Amino acid sequence: MNIDDFKNIIEPVINRNNCLLWGIEILRGKKKNTLRVFIDSNNNVDINDCESISRDLNYEPQIDLNLGEDYILEVSTPGIDRKFFDIKQLKDYVGQELDIKTKSIYEGRRKFIGKLIESDDSKLTIVKSDNSEEIIFKFSDIDLCRLKPDYNNLLKEYSYGE
Hints:
By secondary structure, the chain is an alpha+beta fold. The protein has helices spanning 3-16, 47-57, 61-67, 151-158, and strands at residues 20-27, 33-40, 71-76, 97-106, 109-119, 123-128, 134-138, 142-147. It folds into two domains: 3-76, GMP Synthetase, Chain A, domain 3 (2-Layer Sandwich), CATH 3.30.300; 87-153, Roll (SH3 type barrels). The chain has four helices and eight strands. The termini are far apart. The model has no long low-confidence stretch (mean pLDDT 92).
């Protein structure tokens, strides 16, 4: 069973709970497998949403059949340093900084940090933080793409008295 097969099982459960599927990770362990499900919403997602979806997913027999009965299920939000599972998820993050790790060496390295300036159906463009150079990546060439939050700005936004 591949990720898309799991998605077909998991997404309707999440949608019934008024949430959106952000992504799925399957970690194969020596003793137990782990299924990580990341949920989001147009509203706020709270612990009750995660708990409800987790409970509902425990009753999906196809998951047990493919991961074994003794697996770990984790349901959470993607967080402020969210991983992007699909290039379509990037459209709302233009102007924000990304942390990118490529599948193979590109310009002598695999790790890049830069501000997202554009994305389409297959590629994204960043301006590198270290030298303002624009780089275009095919999303299929990226191993990991994660939002790199500006924690100083976040602290200013949420600090009391300002």
